[in-house]
Amino acid sequence: MKLNKILWVLLFAVSALFLSACSDEEKDASLTDGTQNATSGINDASTNGLNGTSGMNGSGMSGDGDYASTLGPEFNDPSNPLSKRTVYFMLDSSEVMPDFIPVIAAHAQYLIANPAQKITLEGNTDERGSPEYNIALGEQRAKSVAGMMKVQGVSESQLNIVSYGEEKPAAFGSDESAWEKNRRVEIVYQPK
Amino acid sequence: MSFFRRILLVVLLGFNTPISYAALTIEITEGVESAVPIAVVPFASQTAPVNISAVVNADLERSGYFKMMAEQSMPDKPTTAAEVNFKDWQALGQNYLVIGQVVDAGGGQYNVQFQLLDAYKSGQLLGYRMSSSTSDLRRTAHHISDLIFEKLTGKKGVFSGRIAYITTNNLGGKRQLQQLQVADADGFNPQTIASSAEPLMSPSWSPDGKKVAYVSFEKKSAAIYVQTLASGERVRVAEYPGINGAPAWSPDGTRLALTLSKDGSPDIYVLNLSTHSLTKLTKSFAIDTEPSWSPDGSSIVFTSDRGGKPQIYIVPSQGGQEKRLTFSGNYNARASFSPDGRSLVMVHGNGNDYRIAVMDMASRSINVLTGGRSDESPSFAPNGAMILFASKKGSKGFLSAVSLDGKMQQKLVFNSGEVREPSWAP
Predict the structure, then answer these.
(1) In terms of CA atoms, which chain B residue is nearest residue A165?
(2) Domains held by chain A: number
(3) Of B13, B243, B354, the CB nearest to A128
């Protein structure tokens, strides 16, 4: 399940080669198009008592906008791995697939060069199985990505992890094409 | 960590719109062949705003135990025992007859009386007279259904119970509205007790039915809240770094079992709700989650992937040796005990299908009850006879109920949105 540090280092060595060799090659356009949450707005929560009794309401502002795309042209250039901010996974697995190692490596390098920049790694799963187990699985996926970044030298303080399990699908539908888009970690750059 | 900190919240008036996603329809997808013929004759003086005999008829039909006589097939509409010609009903193959009257007593009160009659013995099995306020008429009808059901099946009725569940409505783009709702067991009278643009999860009833614990991501990270239903007041009981999930009340209502990943991998903890002390129950390096208490409070079952795939394990609730319970199927998760403690219901996955299964605790044999591809979140009814679960067809999520023997299945269809994570009130 979890690769040890030495193996990660080896993977990064390989990934560096991979990065230089096929940086202009799209592995799977449908899966690595880098589109992120394009919405922004007010995030709120409220509660109510039964039978019309007044309840309570809490609200807070949240920015869900694609902040990364404002960081520089490299984040929007499809040939640059920084434009890819979603890492996909196999069913019930939290192991990073080789295709995504260069993507993670590129973001790690950016974070090392920009130590004030923070990101949130949002772990997600497909809809199958139990919701709370999927929360745990989504967290494992986010931690896999975080682990690779830390081995490269990214500071822990730059990395925030949240797992949404199956609760925030990127694609709706109950077939493999939707499921494979939902088994993912989103790399979300936080506004400074 | 600010523990049990009261959240500063603004009173919101007039938000509650109980009928907004109201009606839900119930389709009985499978019934027992041995269903008992019964006629619920329309009650007399139906000036009341609720058609009580129609509610009773729907309840009994929904249980799957009865074959209801259509109104147009009835030879007449007696409302007192003296008016009943038992031979007519026998000739039409009816075993039982329910008759009754609803009388407006003035001042917003109604007197409701009903009788359950045995068509073959030509006599009364049950007879009750009760008083009900206008707003309680539906509840009174469900109470009548409970009495009839128990008399005829020997099992407690669950028609007057409540269910909690989560609805998701997509508002376009990636915006969605999630609502935690509480409704009558037949889906009527849904009331939203919490809503958020971020996920709400895992509602769990307190044993006295007065509170619900749940997970909310409203602050973009997970936290567990305990909300008092009558007032809407709530308390945040867990907000640690990482996962705060899967709350489950102890049978005595003093503790919550929950999942936290603050120390690394997700583990099961027990939180004492009065002392606020937190005890770590499992310490594996794998995923441990979805705790659920045995009815006597002595043990907790949970899901763990320590063996590679998720399976069900059990541990004494005071801590101790952890034992694996399930060995059949490559995915067993989200187990909970039947009210008598003799069986466990769980999500059972084999290959691509996730179904609801029941394991007998004595023999450890597993019986798969449903045939869906994506059935999850099973919850026992308090009488132990039915299991409520979430199901999916296409991209539409809905609730279903299945009998413990798998022979009866019914589908609860909401008008809009996706419905998930049902939980039957104790």
Answers:
(1) B199
(2) 1
(3) B354
